[in-house]
Design a protein that fits this description.
about 25% helix, globular, alpha+beta, single chain, five-stranded antiparallel β-sheet
Length: about 110
């Protein structure tokens, strides 16, 4: 199981999890209660319920670079182009836009 903290601007908004069934995204309760809470995507509106998908959510997949920038990432690592979660964790900490993805360490709770 791999997880990523999802930030909207500088505020931790949710948690993305890859598990045996696929992917899950959930907004954090503190973020939902915040006055400044914004949905990270129109396809992932603010809600308490967990979003589930068998494939990486299109919004997150769209954050992964394409073209020559993706080629650079693939050439300098041993990550497969099919391993979308690894590419997301590697390339999307400092994305253009309001959303960023930070790997969650296993020892964090």
């Amino acid at each position: 199981m791999r997880q990523a903290k999802i930030f909207y601007q500088d505020q931790e908004a949710g948690l993305l999890t890859e598990n045996d069934e696929g992917y899950e995204f959930v907004y954090l309760p503190d973020y939902l209660a915040s006055f400044n809470a914004h949905a990270i995507s129109l396809t992932l509106p603010l809600q308490e319920a967990v979003f589930k998908s068998q494939v990486l959510f299109p919004f997150f997949d769209g954050l992964i670079p394409e073209g020559w920038l993706l080629d650079v990432a693939l050439r300098n690592t041993d990550i497969s182009i099919l391993d979308r979660m690894s590419l997301l964790l590697l390339c999307c900490k400092d994305c253009i836009g309001a959303v960023s993805v930070v790997p969650k360490e296993n020892d964090e709770q």
